[in-house]
Specification:
The chain is an alpha/beta fold. The chain has one domain (12-309): 3-Layer(aba) Sandwich (Rossmann fold), CATH 3.40.50.1820. 38% of the residues lie in helices and 16% in strands. Strands 1-2-4-3-5-6-7-8 form an eight-stranded mixed beta sheet, with helices on both faces. It is globular, with a radius of gyration of 19 Å. The relative contact order is 0.15. Residues 41-51 and 309-338 have low confidence and may be disordered. Residues 304-344 are annotated as: Disordered. Keywords: Hydrolase. This is Alpha/beta hydrolase.
Length: 344
C-alpha cells in the first residue's frame, strides 16, 4: 500500500520540509510558537507593473490592508487569511494579495480578524462581516464598483468566507458576485474519509485541525454559522470556485460542499489537484500544479468580475424555498450576540 509521501507530486516534496516543524499545538505556549512559524515578520517589497498603492484602514476596529494594483473604479475582493482561526495575519498574505490584485485588476482588502482561543466564535466571523459591510458602504470613496465585489479566502479563511456569504445573503440579499474557497475548512466533526486518512501527515493534519476547532468553538456548540458544513440552506449564494488537493484532509468535506451547492442551484467550479496536500501552492509556488492552481483561480475571478459589470445581481431563491429551508434548519441555529438568528 502506498504511503502519503509516495502519493505526493514529486515537485511538491520540498514543501513538506517546511511543514516538518509544525507540531500540533495543545497549549497556549505551543500556539504562540506556532503563530511565529505561520506569520511573516514583515511584508516583502513587491515589484508591480501597474500603478500600485497600499493602505491601512480600520472597520469599526477591524484592521484591514488594502492592495490596489490599478486605479478605479475597480472590482474588489475581500480576502480572509488562513491559519485555523488560531494563527495567521493579513500581513503574511501581502505578496499573495498583490499578485491577486495584479492578476484580476481588483482592489484586494485583507482582513486581520481576531484569533481564537483568546477570541473564540463568533469573533472572527463578526470581524469579517464588519469588514464586508464597510467595503460596501465605502465603495465610492475607494473607487470600487459595487456590482463587482467578491469574497475569498484559504483554509480557515475560506471557511469564514463561506459563512460570511450566507449571513450576507440573509441580511442584504445577493450582493456578492463570487466566492473563492481555497481548500476551505468547513467541518468541525472531522468524520470524512480524508480527515480520518490524513491524521498524522507532515503538513496541516487532523491533530492541528481538531485543536483549532476546539479553540475556535470554545464553549459554543457547533452551528451552521460556525461550521459551514452543517449548513443546509445554500440557495442564493454567489457563483463559487472551490480548489483542494487530493491529499488534503479537507478534500471530502470540500467536495461534499460543492455538490450541495450545485444541488441548491449555485454555479460551482470544483478542482481537485492530484498529488497536492494542504498549502502546496504556498510552499512550492513554482511547481506546475501550483501554477495551474493560480491560473484556474485567476480565470474564474476574471470571468466573474468582468461579466458582472453590466449584469444584475445573482438570482435569489424562491420565497417558498427560503421558508421551507429556514424551517427545517431552525432547530440547529444558535443565537449569537451580534450575528443574530438568521437561518443556517
Amino acid at each position: 500500500m502506498s504511503t502519503f509521501i509516495d502519493r505526493v507530486d514529486p515537485e511538491l516534496l520540498p514543501g513538506l520540509a517546511y511543514s516538518q516543524d509544525f507540531p500540533p499545538p495543545t497549549t497556549i505556549e505551543e500556539l504562540l510558537a506556532f503563530r511565529e512559524l505561520t506569520c511573516a515578520p514583515a511584508p516583502k517589497t513587491v515589484t508591480t507593473t501597474t500603478p500600485a498603492a497600499v493602505a491601512t484602514y480600520t472597520a469599526s476596529g477591524v484592521p484591514l490592508l488594502i492592495h490596489a494594483a490599478a486605479p478605479g473604479p475597480a472590482p474588489a475582493i475581500l480576502w480572509i487569511h488562513g491559519g485555523g482561526m488560531i494563527a495567521g495575519e493579513a500581513a503574511a498574505d501581502t505578496d499573495y494579495c498583490w499578485n491577486l490584485s495584479q492578476a484580476t485588476g481588483a482592489t484586494v482588502i485583507a482582513v486581520d480578524y481576531r484569533l481564537a482561543p483568546e477570541h473564540p466564535y463568533p469573533a472572527a466571523l463578526e470581524d469579517v462581516l464588519e469588514a464586508l459591510d464597510w467595503l460596501f458602504t465605502s465603495a465610492d470613496s475607494l473607487l470600487i464598483d459595487l456590482n463587482r465585489i467578491a469574497i475569498a479566502g484559504s483554509s480557515a479563511g475560506a471557511g469564514l468566507a463561506a459563512a460570511a456569504s450566507r449571513v450576507d445573503r440573509d441580511r442584504h440579499g445577493p450582493r456578492l458576485v463570487f466566492q473563492y474557497l481555497m481548500y476551505p475548512m468547513l467541518d468541525d466533526s472531522h468524520s470524512t474519509p480524508s480527515s480520518l486518512e490524513f491524521h498524522n501527515i507532515p503538513t496541516w493534519n487532523r491533530h492541528h485541525s481538531l485543536f483549532a476547532w476546539q479553540s475556535y468553538l470554545a464553549h459554543f456548540p457547533a452551528s451552521p454559522l460556525a461550521a459551514p458544513a452543517r449548513a443546509t440552506r445554500l440557495q442564493g449564494l454567489p457563483p463559487t470556485l472551490i480548489q483542494v488537493g487530493e491529499l488534503d484532509l479537507f478534500r471530502d468535506e470540500d467536495i461534499d460542499y460543492a455538490q450541495r451547492l450545485l444541488a441548491a442551484g449555485v454555479p460551482v467550479e470544483l478542482h481537485v489537484y492530484p498529488g497536492a496536500y494542504h498549502g502546496y501552492e504556498l510552499t512550492v509556488p513554482e511547481a506546475r500544479v501550483s501554477r495551474q492552481t493560480l491560473q484556474d483561480r485567476d480565470r474564474a475571478f476574471n470571468r466573474a468580475l468582468s461579466t458582472r459589470a453590466s449584469g444584475g445581481p445573482p438570482s435569489t431563491p424562491a420565497a417558498s424555498d427560503a421558508v421551507s429551508d429556514a424551517a427545517s434548519d431552525a432547530a440547529s441555529v444558535m443565537p449569537t450576540p451580534s450575528i443574530g438568528t438568521a437561518p443556517p
